[in-house]
Amino acid sequence: MSGKRAKPSSGKRKVTLKTRPGDGDVSAFLSGIEDETKRADSQTLMAMMKRVTGHDAVMWGSSIIGFGIYTGTYADGRTMQWMVTGFSPRKTALTVYVMPGFSAYGDLMSRLGRYKTGKSCLYIKRLSDVDLDVLETLLADAYRHMKGKYPD
After folding, report:
1. Which of 3, 53, 54, 104 could hold 67 in an S-S bridge, CB 3.0 to 4.6 Å?
2. How far apart are CA 113 and CA 127, in angstroms?
């Protein structure tokens, strides 16, 4: 042992994530997307998410566009802030962040179209691969779920 005493816990500790909301220019970021289809799809997603959430787009880090914010608490009491929903126009696919995951949305997912998923990530090559009405319903349902679980 080094003889140093650990500081007593002061209750909840905040987690500092590398990706945080910033003051990046969303329009400039989207304008810089070289692939014309991905740029247009990103504009469509941005308008859809603004309509669903009522929030303006905010850059999170250098490549994620987020809408809304919530404070989550880990099992050990640490807290962190994250976007309620958002997306990133990655090289291989549009990554859409559906924070509650997909287990409660089986019917919508079966009607969505072509996609892949991770835990809370929906990967879509191009928006023409999915039904936009179903996508908007999925985003609206997921947003309502998050706001119910994490009210302002």
Report:
1. 53
2. 10
Is residue 77 helix, strand or coil? coil
Per DSSP, the three-state class of 50 is: helix
3-state class of 106 per DSSP? Answer: helix
Domains of the chain: 26-149 (3.90.1150.200)
Core vs surface per residue 77-102: b (16+ CB within 10 A) or e: eeeeebbbbbbbbeeebbbbbbbbeb
| Closest listed residue to residue 99, CA positions, set 56, 135, 143, 65 | 143
The 10s digit of each residue's pLDDT in 85-109 is 999 999 999 999 999 999 999 999 9
